[in-house]
Structures are given as structure tokens and as C-alpha cells.
Amino acid sequence: PKIQARTASDPAGPWSAPVDIWTCPEPAAHKGYFAYSGKAHPGISAKGELLITYAVNSFQFGDLFSDPTLYWPRFVRVQLASP
Length: 83
Description:
It is built from two helices and five strands. With 83 residues, the protein is mainly β. Strands 3-4-5 form a three-stranded antiparallel β-sheet. The radius of gyration is 15 Å and the shape is elongated.
């Protein structure tokens, strides 16, 4: 349920250790739910923050019919620490 970030001064690395930047609340709130596909969107993020998206689904197919909020993207603005 955690979205992590890593940084590097070069695309080939070396990369920093992963840092948790967001904990998706849905898996803790609903048994059988899971979060996946966390993505950063720096090109549309405001200064000092990072817009991230992720998706939520369930291991129980029937949950897709009883919970209309499943399988929709979530958008979160994470405040970045000042360097």
C-alpha cells in the first residue's frame, strides 16, 4: 500500500534508497483491496509538490459492483521537502 520514490542525478543511477511518500488508505480500510500502479506526474505538478496517481482494485470480483469507487484513479499531491 505504499508508494515510494527514489532519486538519482543520472538516469543510470546510482539511485537512492526508496523513501515512502504516500500510504494508500484503501487496503487498510477494506479487506481484500489492493493499490497498484503508482505514478509520478512531475510535468503537471506545482512547485514544491509532486502529483501522484494510483489505482485500487479488489481480489473479490463482486466488490467491483458493490463499490463504485473501485478501479478509478486516485490523485494525491505530495509536498516535497526543501533541499
